[in-house]
Structures are given as C-alpha cells and as structure tokens.
C-alpha cells in the first residue's frame, strides 16, 4: 500500500499553539533530544515480502528546519523528483512567540500569510491573507482564565465560531465548529496527564491512541481499522525510522507509511 505525506500539518499547528502557551519549543513538545538543526522525513513506497519490509521507491520527502531554540522556521515538501511542491516559513518574535507563517506555492509565489498578535503568552488574533483571491480572514481568541474558550472568524462580512467546553480531567474538551455557511460540526478530545490525546470523538466515530514508554504513538484505532507503529532510534534517542502498519477487520495487515528520518545535529 502506498505511503502518503510524512508530515502532519494538523499536528504542527496543534503543537505550535501548545508550545506558545505552555513554554515549550517544538523540539521539547515532541520529545526530541540534542541540538537539532534540521531533519528530513522521506516517505517510501514499501511492501512486505517473506515477512520482511522492503523499500521500493521514494514517494516524497519533507525537510524541516529549526532555529537555535528548537522552533520550526521552514517546512519544505518535495516530490520524488526533488521538485518543491510547497514551502512554509515561520518567523519568531522570541523563543516562544511566533510572529508570522507564510505559505508558498511550487512556483515560489506566496499563497498566504498569517500574522499573529499576543497578549503575554496568549494568542489574541490572527490575520490570514489569502493571496489567491485577495481576501483577509481575521481570527480572534477568547479565554476563560488560562484556557482557550472561543475563536471567532470574520471573512467577507460573514462569521464563523469555534467554541471549547472543558470536561473531565487534563483539559479535555468538547469543540463545536460553526462554519461561515452555517454548517455545524462537533468533536470531543480526551487527554492523558501528559497532555497527549487518547480519545477523539468525531462524526459518530471513535478514534483511540496508545503510547509507548518514549511517548510515541504505538497503536491507534478507528472504526474497523487498527494501526500499529514500529520505530528505530539513533544514539541520541530520536526515532530515525517509523513504519505504520494498518489492518482493517480481519484482513491482511499492510504497510501504510514507511518514513526514514535523517537528522542534522549541530556540532
């Protein structure tokens, strides 16, 4: 089975806000060790033959660059022929405060830019300029104490909202998203004492996540799918190879993702 994109944009955004509010850099929030300059995730098409995993060919790869504090400054995605598909550049005001995110198309032209404003550690607003249609979207953030309670978006005279209601322990919450067209969706996220998501309820489905002793995902479930993860590590304790296996019901287990990570350390 073909492997897909190796870097999750959603995870990046979640960790970005977590890092800004909880005083952790991206490297710290993701449990990486050592003075890392950059890393490259290469996604392979892989097969299981005679009980062994075989890399067949490269699907794509993504290079992530970090500043001296351990925050992401650039993410560049390449296709298998070394052509840039897209690039994201992040600028930082200081160690923990992001100032802007600019996304570029494959032709090198800017596609959008997000400008962040803070009050102390808290994001107060984000202005998103979409250069494809020359529109601006303004997101404003509201808090109940130290916890985010509501995000309101305004674009072309319309309004959308995202509200958070906290439930149970470990800042677990229910999220209600009302889009610009009035469409409403709901989800519920449950976290463990380390702040890791363990259950996500969305669209009538239940997603679960289990972690190993290193804090890495080792098993996920969704509907009839069960996914398991195998890792190899370098001498610094960072993973340099991750294989994700997927099984649907009683069918044969296949390889969904095979990612090889090359890490550049500062000497």
Structure in words:
The chain has two domains: 1-105 and 233-267, no CATH class; 109-211, Lipocalin. The longest helix is centred in the N-terminal third of the chain and has 14 residues, at 9-22. The chain is globular. The protein has an 18-stranded antiparallel β-barrel. With 267 residues, it is mostly beta strands. A hairpin with a 2-residue loop joins strand 8 and strand 9. Mean pLDDT is 91; it is low at 1-21. The protein has helices spanning 9-22, 26-29, and strands at 36-49, 52-66, 72-79, 84-92, 98-104, 110-119, 122-130, 135-144, 147-155, 158-166, 173-178, 184-191, 197-202, 205-211, 217-222, 225-233, 239-248, 254-265. The protein has two helices and 18 strands.
In round numbers, the mean pLDDT is 91
Order of helices and strands: HHEEEEEEEEEEEEEEEEEE
Tell me which oligomeric state these chains represent: single chain
The figure for the number of domains is 2
State the separation between the terminal residues, measured CA to CA.
38 Å
Apparent shape: globular
| Total helical elements | 2
- What share of the residues does DSSP label as strand, in percent? over 45%
Q: Main beta sheet, described? A: 18 strands, antiparallel, barrel
Helix/strand-derived category reads mainly beta
